[in-house]
């Protein structure tokens, strides 16, 4: 019965397109954050070996440390963003992520590397709950599957293009330049949402 009462697909698609127009302010964050992170995927192992002089086990421990701190931060950061508002968790997380990415290019010891991996993990833990909550506000109530599919497709463009761009930049300008580019992208996202009206985050 529910299926029989559903509006025609054309009407659903038109309503979805109309609703997605409101998502335009989120597009820079949706594309650039996945693009920036994906840029580093093809060069991280080489960067860790040649610039940071890390062994395979040290590199693995570094990834576990960053990921572990991200997981630990998700729930408390999510609760705080619900209580205090999403805007400053997004802005602070993006700006801190940008600064930590830049600092990784300057480190000279394993302990310093671990510290900035922790900072990256916590900043990601601050961004992710607030970002997902913000996206959820723009999902059409009766089209959650399609809405999230559209969001995932847009973010997937960054994931698809990022490794290609990161590899080209690293081959052309050196291993540290993709980190600078990625840091600049996250800096731009943070400043963009700093400028954006508060009504977006309600």
Features:
single chain; mainly alpha
Structural commentary:
It is built from 9 helices and no strands. The chain has helices spanning 2-5, 9-20, 27-39, 44-50, 56-84, 87-104, 110-136, 144-173, 177-195. The longest helix has 30 residues, at 144-173. The model has no long low-confidence stretch (mean pLDDT 86).
Task: Round the Cα radius of gyration to an integer and report it.
Answer: 19 Å
Mean pLDDT: 86
Number of strands: 0
The biggest beta sheet reads:
none
Give the percentage of residues in beta strands: under 5%
Query: What is the CA-CA span between the terminal residues?
Result: 35 Å
- Overall geometry: globular
Q: What percent of residues adopt helix (DSSP H or I)?
A: over 70%
Low-confidence stretches: none
Order of helices and strands: HHHHHHHHH
Oligomer state of the chains in this structure: single chain
Count of runs of 4 or more consecutive helical residues = 9
| Helix-strand category | mainly alpha
Summarize the model shown.
The chain is mainly alpha-helical. It has nine helices and no strands.
């Amino acid at each position: 019965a529910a299926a029989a009462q559903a509006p025609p697909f054309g009407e659903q698609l038109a309503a979805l397109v109309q609703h997605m127009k409101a998502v335009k302010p989120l597009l820079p964050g949706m594309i650039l954050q996945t693009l920036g992170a994906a840029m580093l995927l093809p060069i991280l192992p080489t960067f860790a070996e040649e610039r940071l002089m890390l062994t395979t086990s040290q590199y693995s421990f570094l990834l576990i440390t960053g990921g572990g701190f991200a997981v630990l931060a998700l729930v408390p950061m999510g609760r705080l963003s619900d209580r205090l508002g999403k805007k400053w968790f997004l802005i602070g997380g993006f700006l801190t992520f940008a600064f930590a990415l830049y600092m990784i290019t300057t480190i000279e010891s394993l302990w310093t590397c671990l510290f900035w991996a922790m900072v990256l993990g916590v900043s990601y833990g601050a961004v992710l709950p607030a970002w997902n909550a913000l996206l959820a506000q723009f999902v059409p109530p009766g089209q959650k599957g399609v809405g999230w599919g559209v969001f995932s497709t847009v973010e997937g463009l960054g994931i698809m293009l990022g490794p290609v761009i990161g590899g080209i930049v690293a081959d052309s300008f050196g291993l540290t330049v993709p980190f600078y580019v990625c840091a600049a992208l996250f800096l731009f996202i943070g400043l963009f949402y700093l400028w954006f009206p508060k009504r977006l985050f309600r």
